[in-house]
Amino acid sequence: MIYENNTSELLKVREITKTSNTKSFDTTSTDITFVWNRGTSMKIAVNEISYKLLENDIIILTNHHTIEDVVFESIRLIKFNLPFINHIDNEVGKSLKGALFFNVTNAPILSIEENELDAFEYSWDIFCMEMKSRDNLQYEMLQSILKRIIILCARKLTKEVAITSVKRESDILREFKFLVENYFSKHHDVAFYASKLNKSPKTLSNLFSSLCDRTPMDIIHERIMVHARRQIYHTTKSIKEIAYDLGYEDIQTFSRFFKNKEGLSPNQYREKSRFV
């Protein structure tokens, strides 16, 4: 079931089984995908990381995630682009970013408990009903249901990862990770992200040192490497093309960076991957 209008707002809701076409898993067609496992178990590989989901676990993916393999019995998908929630109030937007980008490399997973299942099931049922509606209130209703699901998921993740982020500092860290997801291929310097957050690079670094064991530059480099490994391993692009796509003007600089992080040159990494 698909809702789409002439202002690029898109929402897709679908329930599929293992016999269905897995093209539905394409995360590039929308900005955000909620995958709700309804079978006894589910295995999914995302950005070279494998996850196992139990019944009523939800994994939240963005268009920066690439699904490399998936095994499932029955799932529910909620896919939407960011323009669809542009009019949702700011606090819900912050909750969504917090849920998605708490961990820069791992996809967030939440587990729906038995006493919470009714709230999620109710939202799903209303979603399916409203997707079939064609009156002039459909858009507002769909936004309202999506907002409810985002809040339910954000509440769950906040509890499960025990985030101490009632503080403004943690909000800034999550916003930083959100910005990195959108700009890592063009901007590699901490100063760019600090300016977006109206902070100095030093202030940003101090916040990181007090709240986590990684620096802002670590986060940027980790995200570049996730993309670089995937491109080298899964595509036939030349190393020069990959370097250019990641914002490096010359291949030597990129190669030095990659070898420093991986211990192998890009070409050595590609050659090694052929025998894995």
Give the overall silhouette.
globular
Task: Indicate the percent of residues in helices.
Answer: 40-55%
Largest sheet: 6 strands, antiparallel
Q: Work out the radius of gyration.
A: 20 Å
Which segments are poorly predicted (pLDDT under 50) over 5 or more consecutive residues?
A: 163-167
On the 0 to 100 scale, the average pLDDT is: 82
- How far is the first residue's CA from the last residue's CA? 39 Å
Q: Order of strands across the widest beta sheet?
A: 1-2-8-3-6-9
Please identify the structural class as seen in this structure. Answer: alpha+beta
**Approximately what portion of the residues adopt beta-strand conformation?**
15-25%
User: Count of DSSP helices?
Assistant: 10
How many strand elements? 9
Textual characterization of the structure:
This protein has 276 residues and is α+β, with helices and mostly antiparallel strands. The chain is built from 10 helices and 9 strands. The chain has helices at 90-101, 117-131, 138-160, 168-183, 190-196, 201-211, 216-234, 239-245, 251-262, 266-273, and strands spanning 2-4, 10-17, 32-37, 41-46, 49-54, 57-62, 67-71, 74-80, 109-111. Strands 1-2-8-3-6-9 form a 6-stranded antiparallel β-sheet, with helices on one face. Strand 4 (41-46) and strand 5 form a beta hairpin. Helix 1 packs across helix 3 and helix 4 (168-183) packs parallel to helix 7 (216-234). The radius of gyration is 20 Å and the shape is globular.
